[in-house]
Amino acid sequence: MDLSVLRWFRQVAGGATVTETAARARLTQPALSRALRRVEREVGTELFQKAGRTLRLTPAGHAFAERVGGVLDSYDQGVREVRELVDPDAGTVPLAFLHTLGTWLVPQVIRDFRDVHPRARFALRQHGEEGLVTELTAGTADLVLTSGDPRVPTIDWRRLLVEPLHLAVPPDHRLADRQEIRLAEAAEETFILLRPGYGLRATTEELCGQAGFAPRVGFEGEEVDTLRGLVTAGLGVALLPPPRSPSTAPHLLVTDVPAQRDIGLAWATGRDLPPLSTRFRDHILDR
Predict the structure, then answer these.
(1) Which of 29, 65, 154, 266 lies 20 to 30 A from 96 at CA?
(2) What residue ranges define each of the domains in the chain, with the CATH number in brackets?
(3) Whole-structure pTM over 0.90, yes or no?
């Protein structure tokens, strides 16, 4: 079976329409439909069912899709490893990271590494913590920059640094002229949080609990910069990392609880990384 056909199958199985997949593959839609039917004939059963204008996997399709994903990932990994053996400085490092690290830490470590390995390339993905764990366990990322130890038996994690968290308040807030604050003083405030599944959400709830209250949630988001913007607009307060660019929202030092989070590097336990990914991991750990 042609690997290209399996890649098309995976795209459609992942939710892409036949039209979208055909356009990306530069095929006509009938040609792609025939290719998918050939896959079904080869495995001996129907893999898709029509649901309006889309195709949905049958139970057999779900089972086949799981195996196809593993086959393609293993093949791609093998190609990477061979290429890096032939030319160790010209490979690709699949790296996933927290959204909040994309504006400062990730550019720094990549720039420094490329100073030594200028032909190195990176395949970058951004997620919350749960998505980052999935990237490692699925093998789609070699390395992950995240906050806190995932505490998953199949993942190794090393702390790189400790990042402070400050209470961001609106510019016209009653606390805006302060430099420091006890988090307990914010017990009656409306909090703006990341959605459940993000480490900063759990850290905020834990710190508020240590200060003696549960945060009253007014808004939820998926990006720290969005939260900072909502705070600036006067919609609430938030525990956030210090801004990396000028912000009109005051960020107050929290004094009564340990307002900070660990930033670290993670990789799959026992998995042999390709040479370039190993070099990048060592480069980060030696910083």
Answers:
(1) 65
(2) 3-80 (1.10.10.10), 88-162+263-285 (3.40.190.10), 166-258 (3.40.190.10)
(3) no
